[in-house]
Write a structure and sequence with these properties.
This protein is of the alpha/beta class. The chain is built from ten helices and 18 strands. Strands 3, 5, 6, 9, 10, 17 and 18 form a seven-stranded mixed sheet that branches. Strand 14, helix 7 and strand 15 form a beta-alpha-beta unit. The model has no long low-confidence stretch (mean pLDDT about 95). Belongs to the zinc-containing alcohol dehydrogenase family.
């Protein structure tokens, strides 16, 4: 079928809206008509020079929409279902079978390369040029996308489907990192570094968990204002001096039990670890840093640094939970969203890079 898609042809090129021929869904695949798709920081990996993301490519990995067709062998999904598209996983490895699909050994191959494992192109231009369309098992910067039964999550029909895409990655990562991976409980303390979509979702989740101290750190005062509204008990501008010392003071001198970094800025990560009390845990979800340098003495005293992928969530169970929290007015993720037509994707990218908006959602 013919679709419209935002194609990235080079790391330093603008997106171009192009007409592509998309294959019919194959075994285990699902065709989704996209109602909205979030732009996530991970999509910026396509901007890194080199061969990590092969071009030309359709990015986008926070799609939501309606099922238009299913391939052979698909069960649990039907034409007309409302769905959120999340990350892909193999479903057969030990980690997938133990409810840790984010740690699937095939995570990179299935999500980061945008190339089908069988090597068969799913999309081509009118003159037969292959365009890669398996970014996070979906490539949803488009009018339609192919997903799999592993990463297409059915949701209720009575919620605004065009707004749900960010639940598939960024919002899920922030919320599940707090609620599942770190396991924040009532009365705990946490410092959250970076108040973008991931960090603000973490703030919301910390409030849901009943954390007594929730410190948000960011460089943008407008985002710190949002953090206050979403449940932060304290906010700090990251440009201030001695952030770790301020956090220790806020938490009674010992430091917080948990810290969470979504920035991947090495200096910020060091501060996040230094903000912990002994036995504290720092969760890292940021993408892009080559290395971190940490004070070994902090770790020897019992602190833990933990890498987290997609919040250690199982999308098929966690996405519906976030929707239910939203229904209860306890998880207002929709307030993070600014919508753009798909053909304004370059403006959306500029606005999110500058910090003007928190979570762009593109509407085909």
């Amino acid at each position: 079928m013919q679709i419209n898609a935002a194609v990235l042809r080079a790391a330093d090129a603008p997106y171009t809206i192009e007409s592509l021929d998309l294959a019919d869904p194959g075994p285990g695949e699902v065709l989704v008509k996209i109602a909205g798709t979030g732009m996530c920081h991970t999509d910026m990996l396509g901007r890194i020079p080199g061969d990590l993301v092969t071009k030309p490519v359709v990015l986008g990995h926070e799609g939501s929409g309606l099922v238009e067709a299913v391939g052979p062998g698909v069960t649990g999904l039907a034409v007309g279902d409302h769905v959120v598209m999340s990350f892909d996983s193999c479903g057969t490895c030990d980690n997938c079978r133990s409810a840790q699909p984010g740690a699937c050994p095939e995570m990179t191959a299935l999500n980061m390369l945008a190339i089908p494992l069988d090597g068969r192109p799913r999309a081509t231009t009118g003159d037969g040029e292959a365009v890669h369309t398996r970014w996070f098992g979906q490539s949803s910067f488009a009018s339609h996308a192919l997903g799999t039964v592993r990463n297409v999550v059915p949701v209720s029909r009575d919620v605004p489907i065009e707004q749900l895409g960010p639940l598939g990655c960024g919002v899920q990562t922030g919320a599940a990192s707090v609620l599942i991976s770190l396991g924040v409980r009532a009365g705990d303390s946490i410092a959250i570094f970076g108040a973008g979509a991931v960090g603000l979702a973490a703030v919301m989740a910390a409030r849901v968990a009943g954390a007594a101290v929730i410190v948000a750190v960011d460089l943008h005062e407008s985002r710190l204002d949002l953090a206050r509204e979403f449940g932060a008990t304290h906010v700090l501008n990251g440009a201030d001096d001695d952030i770790a010392g301020q956090i220790r003071a806020i938490s009674g001198g010992e430091g917080v039990q948990y810290s969470f970094d979504s920035t991947a800025v090495p200096e910020v990560v060091s501060t996040a670890v230094a903000s912990l009390r002994t036995t504290g845990v720092c969760g890292l979800v940021g993408v892009g840093a080559a290395e971190y340098r940490l004070d070994a003495n902090l770790l020897l005293m019992g602190r833990t640094v933990k890498g987290i992928i997609e919040g250690d969530a199982v999308p098929h169970t966690f996405i519906p939970k976030m929707i239910e929290l939203w229904r209860q007015d306890r998880f207002p993720f929709d307030r993070l969203i600014t919508t753009y037509p798909l053909d304004q994707i370059n403006q959306a990218e500029a606005d999110t890079t500058s910090g003007k908006v928190v979570k762009p959602v593109l509407i085909p």
